[in-house]
Every structure is written in C-alpha cells, then in structure tokens.
Amino acid sequence: MIEVKHLRKHYFTKSGRVEAVRGVDFEITKGEIFMLLGPSGCGKTTTLRCIAGLETPDDGEIMLGGQVVFADHGKLMVPVYRRGVGMVFQSYAIWPHLTVFENVAYPLVYGMFKIPKSEVKDRVQKALRLVGMEDSQDRPAPFLSGGQQQRVALARALAYEPKVLLLDEPLCNLDAKLRAEMRVELKALMKRLKLTALYVTHDQEEALVLSDRVAVMHEGVITQVGSPRDIYMRPSNDAIASFIGSANLLQCSVKGGSVEDKQDAVSTPIGTLTCSLPRKMGIGQTATIMFRPEDILILDASCSRTENVFHGVVEQAVYVGSRFQCEILVGSCKIRVEAPKHYVLKTDQKVMIEIPRDAVYLLPHEQ
Amino acid sequence: MKPRSSALRSVTIPLACSWFILSGIIVLLLFVFYMTFVPGLPTEPGFTLQHWANVLSARLMTRVIPNTAIVGFGAILVSASFALPLAWLLNRTTLPFRNMFITMMALAAIIPGFILAMGWIMLLDERIGILNTVIAALFSLDSVPVGVKNNPFGIAWVIGLILTPPIFFLIAGPMRALDPALEEAAGVAGFTQWKTIWRVSFPLVWPGILGGLIYIFMTAVSLFEIPALLGAASGKVPVLATELFYAVRPGGPLTATFAYGAAGVYGVLLAIPSLTALYLYLRVLARAERYQVITGKGYRPREFSLGRFNWLGIAFVVAYLMLSVGLPLSVLVWASLMPVLQVPSVEAFSKVSLGNYYGLLETIGGFPVIRNTALLMTSVSLLVCFFSFMVSWVVVRTQLRSRKLIDMLAMMPHAIPGLAFAFALAMIGILASIWIPWPPVSGTIGIIVVAHVINRLPYGTRIMNSALVQVHHELEESAQVCGMKNITIMRRIVFPLVKPSMIYVAIWTAMLSFQEVTMALFLSGPHNHVLSVGIWELWDRDLGKAAAWAVTMVAVTGALMWVVLKLTGGRVGGHIGTWARVAR
Description:
Chain A is built from nine helices and 21 strands.
C-alpha cells in the first residue's frame, strides 16, 4: 500500500543544513502495521510528513495504494489534500473551536472527501462508536482530556475511510498507564478494521507491542527492518541492541576448541563463554556478543553446572516490584541481571550466575 | 528541532500585502530624512545643511531639548512612583476590591490624554484654575502657589499620570507570572517577607520594569497634544514634538513661517532617542526571556497580606484614581454645566444648566464631523486588521528568510513618533497637489486614515503574532490531510481561531482613532475634521462647550469600552494589558 524509494530530505536550522532523511526505502503491504522507531531527530517524523505530503522531499519516489504521489524531484507531486491519508498528530490537533462531532464531521463536509449531507451524521457516529466516544459528541473540544482528544483524533482520521493511516507518536502525550491501555486498544482496533498503518515512535515498547514490522532509524537511514521478535532477539548492531530493551554487550574474540573440543567458544573480559557461532567465523576473529538481563539465571551454591557459570558480587540490587534489577560485577565487568522477585539479593553478596548458551547472540560484525 | 510546516504554500498574496504597507513606511521615513536637506519645498531645487546646523541654535539647545528631557524623565519618575506600588498592591497582595480597581485602571487607560490635560488646566491654571483659586482664597494670597501650565514639570506631571495605566499593565504581567516557588525557596532559606521581595522578586521582575520605563520615555517625548495644551502653544515651554508641529502648521505666536526642513530635523531628533530606547527595550526583553520567569504553568501567584495596613493600600489606589481620573473628569463635568468656569459655591450651583449641551453638534462642525469620525474609525480598524493579519501571517506562518526583517519593519512605527509620519504624509500631500492636482490627497480623511493605519500597525501585528503563534501548526496540517484546501482552512480553521484577537484589534484601534488628536490635527484641512480635532479647536474658543464635548467623548469611549469588556468576557488584566502596552 505504501512504497517509499530512496527518499531524501534536508532542511535548514539555525546551525545550518541538516540531512534529515538520507535515502530511505521500505514497503508496507495491505493490512500491515509498520513502525518507524528511532531516537528523536533521526528523521522518522520527516519521513512520515513526506508521505502525508506536508513536506516536499528532495529526491525519491512515494507511492500510495498503487498511485505515484511523489516522483521526479517534485515534478509529479500530489498535494496533501488529495492524497487521502488519515493522520493522527502528536498534539492530536483537535480544532479547539468545534465540538467533538464537528471535529469528526469537518473533513466530510468541507474536505475533498465530501459525502452527501444526509450520511454525515451516521458516518460520524460510526467513527465515534469505534473509539468509544459516541456519548460525548456534543462536548466542546477544549473540555476533553488527553486520552479523549486522542480518541477523537483517531475517529476524525478514520471517518473518511482513508487508504492508509499515519500516526505520529500518538501516545507520547499520555501518562504511562493510559498509554499502556491505549496501545493494546489501538492495536485491536487497527487489526479489526484491517488498516494499513505507518506509525512513528521513539518508544521501543510501543513498537514491540503494536507493530507487525519495525524499521529502526538512525541519523536519517533505516538500520534494520524486521518483526518485533527479530529486532529484539537478533539486533543487527550494538546501537540497536541497547536501544531496544536493555542489553549486556561484551567484546570477544573467537577461541579454538578449548572447551570440550568445540569450536564455539569465545574469550571475553569475564572469561570463556560457550555459544553457537556462525560457521564462517575463524579463530582469532573479534566480535561483539549480546545477552539480555532477563535470560541470565542466578544459581544456588549447591548447583553443579559449570558451563557459562561465573562468580560475581552484587553491586546494586533494585526491587521494582515484579523483579529485581541488579548489576553484578564479574571480574571487572558490570553485568545487568534481572532476577525473579523471590531471590532476595543484597549489595556485596556473592552470587553465581549462568548465561545460558542459547541466550548469547553474536552481533554480525559491521564492516 | 522538528521541521516546521510550509503549510500554506501560497504566500504570495500575504507577502505582497505586507510589502505594500511596509514599503509605505520605508518611503515615508526616507522622505522625512530627505526633507532635512531641502531648503524649502522639495519641488524647489537646492541642497542645504543649514537645517542641521540650526540644531546648534541657542533656542533648541537651551530650551527645547532640556524641556523635552525634563518631560521625558519627569514622566518616568511620576508614572513609576505610581505604577510600581499600584502593580504590586493590585497583583500580589490581598487588598480588598482588587478586581474593581484593576477594571478602573483599564478605564483610566482609555480616557483620551488631552481631555485629562484640559481637566488639569481647569484645576491648576494660574488664572482660572479652581484648585488654585480655592487655595488662594483660603490663604488670602494674590498669586497662585502651583501652576501646571507653562512649566515643563507640570507637563511631566500630567503625562506621568496619564501613562501610569500602561506601565501598570506592562509590569502586572511579569509580576503575576513570577513562579511562587522561587519566593517560597527564599522563605525556606530564611529570608523575611520584605527581604524576599527586595532580594528575589524585585530583581526577577526588573527587566519588565525597565522595559516599561523605556516605553514611558519614548511615549512621553513624542506626545504633542499635552505639551501643546500646557504651554507650548503659547511658546513658553517648547518641546521637540511641538516644535515639529508648529514648524509645519504655524499658528503659535513664535512660528509664523513654514519650516519644512527644520520639521524634518525635529522628526529625526525625536526618532533617535526613541529608536535607541526601542533597541534597549528589545535587549531588555531578550534578557528577560533568558530568565524564564514566566514558565506558562497555571499557578496562582503567592499573595501578600497587608494586614493592618490594608487601608493604606486602598488609600494609595484611590488617591491615584482621584488624581488621574476623578479630579480632572469632575472638573470637566462641572465646567460643562457652567456658563463660565467658577469655584463651586451656592451661587454657582444656582447657575448649573445643560446650556452647553444644547446644539452641541453645530458647535463642532455638524454632521460631517461625525461622519468623518465614523469613517476614520471603521476604515482604520478594518485596514489595521487586514494588514496585521497579512504581516503576521508571513512572520509566523512561513519560513521566508525575510520574515525577521518584515517583523522589525512592522515594529518601526512604534519607535518613530506618529508626528513624523504625519509630517511626511503632509509633505506628500502638498507635493501631490502641485504635481497631480486631480486626486485629492491633502486635507482628505484618507490621508489621516493612512497615518493612523501606519501608527497602529505595530500594535496590530503584536496581537496577531501572538494569536497566530497560539494556533498550533498541526491544526492546519491536520485539516490539509483531511482533504481541505488552503482557502477552506483559512476560513474554517484559522480565522475562527484568531477571531477573538481580530475583534480586540478592531475595537481597540477604532477607540484609539476616536481619541487621537495629534496626527488628525496635523493633517486636518477644512473638510476632514474629526471629533477630537473639533474639541481641540473648540478649547480656544469656548471652554464650556469644549468641556461638554469632552464629557460626551469620555461617555462614548466608556460605552465602547463596555462593549469590549462584554466581548472579552471581562478579562481586563490579560488583554487590556497588551493593548495598553502598545496603545497610545
């Protein structure tokens, strides 16, 4: 439904020329929720605005539902109001001089997607019912809470049945609890309506929960595309690994068969680790390994396992309710560990940890 | 930083309109400067530096410039010593009747200055002043103790009183917005209440105060009507503004000849301190922004309880209101009911009649004057709204590199006295009548309208800028995404959102045009008299009739003000504050 090729866009700020988007390609299929994830200033919002038509790209090609809306450096450019996309803005952009009903009805009455006057009421009510706002349709917009504004913005974007839905950090102005609720609700709604959506966020949790596919953006380029599971389990570099979730990263070099004659051993600052290596790795090659804090096991003193077991000292243990977040000093390295809440860990306590072989992931070496 | 939208790409029309009005400003300013090198009229050949050499003349150096300085600094002293305590009392204490007093301050801000000056003359004139006569009678003196007339300090006193409401509202903003946590922190750290005010609150509000003082100076030195009433017309206390006026419109006893070049020089001399002050003012404002005292959070300022001294606070506020409005207005009402001005007595009361109010319309020039006034008010407010919207649109809503320059140019008429623009327009009028006799320029109501529009543009653009900034750009973008065209967005989204500000601008400019006298008088001819000019001219002929008109005018202004209050829902502090700041 959406196809973006070689998109480029720069703009000027006080500090000079900024290359906001530097050659972005992706394709979103029908009914897919596609997420652009990245830190602020990485060009994700600019990309979204180019697709909506609010910005004119320098170069590249954009197709919406099989129709070219931008090509040839702007010689072919469909104006915003003809593109027929739905968009939810970061600030919600609820028109403050109108009521809830009028906000949703305005595009149907004054926009390019006019429908007969007699149908407007039905259509608006249908859209408001989708987001659970049918009871407050006569309320003036300024009297809405953040969550309600967000719902109205969504209803307005859906009322004229757009080809695709664009969402620009729609949940970032909500408080944490409401955000978690809206996330699940939004996903259910989008799936039920089989919407094609492009969603921009800097919140990695949002990306993992909501999307079918995630594109991680960094400094104007997409660094990895994949399913949320892919991105979390097999990040393509250390920046992505530490941006998405929390990760332990260690430099290592491949070591020949010292552990039970297996090739799959690497030497790291905390000692020798056993893991599955890709076949092409040769002895002596350096790389980075990653393992997640929640995969690490804390062992009893009586445990007799030895593979990937290390001794360490608890440097910090923070109780966060559902679990303990600890930093354990192994050798000279701090290892982040998440321990189940029934372990009572104290500072300076000596512990044994196991890093299971399957939990260790070797990052592909960057050229 | 997120890239800002180029939401409405069609900037051509707003840009063209902006440059149309701004180029007018530039041309007029250059023309003033050019006039200082021309011997007589610009139609006559020649180049001279004589006008500039005359600056060193004894009259200018020993009388005009010192008088102007006394008026400027004296006005600062008077208005600061009233406005600072007033701003604190009415914004940061628990003084009773505060809201009523603030509304009365707003009313004081809109009463035409020259009317109050007339009231003060009736109170303190050497010969006829009621207060003086009373005091002289009480102490059986032959000569009068104090005179407000023919005395630069008297002028400073009256101007200071009149400019107190604007500076009051100017300081009230930062004073209210001061984060109470800053003061609470001082309290926790062991500061007493008074020490907190002196060591924490005052330094934080200082940039706002300084900005206000500079503004007072700029306004005071460029006022014409009050010095003229209080002594410059007779040539006894000349200031720069009156010198400029009488150089082009001879009428006083000393200046019987036209001196266009000299007028240009006076205009430039007036603009120099104003431009310097404006520059300083903007510097101070920029520094004030660095302080970030105003965080925009919705908190209530901490209020100081005066306790036993409440009565003292009330007495101070009432004293100011009496001096600035009560006394001058009552004396005008009294004078309007008297055939001849005299001290109230049993005998005088028997003479009270509405005689002065009979045939009021004829005394001032009949229906055409009313028509001219209405025409002036409506066309100025419509044009100011239109051009302000266009200029602000370019400044706020586009990415054009020239938008900073456009914003600055639109601010220029604030620093340059209206008199200078009126002078340039009058000269253009004279030239036009020589070169192209057909289209009437000189002596039309149109030329006064142009002068007013230019003069009110800074005020209009300030209000429209802040109104447009508040319309988040995503509100327009979402309309675009929803399939609306630019023209529909303007009509359905942007215009309804800035409409309240538009109405404020319209009504307030109409009100200011109604009471403005300097430019209208300067550009007046036989057929373009407006009400304020009529009253001004009546003052010399018939005191009682002039007083009757002044009372009528205050009543009309009050009625207009009431309409504004209704439209704004009574939020005086907020909007009038902004108005008063840029008004006058």
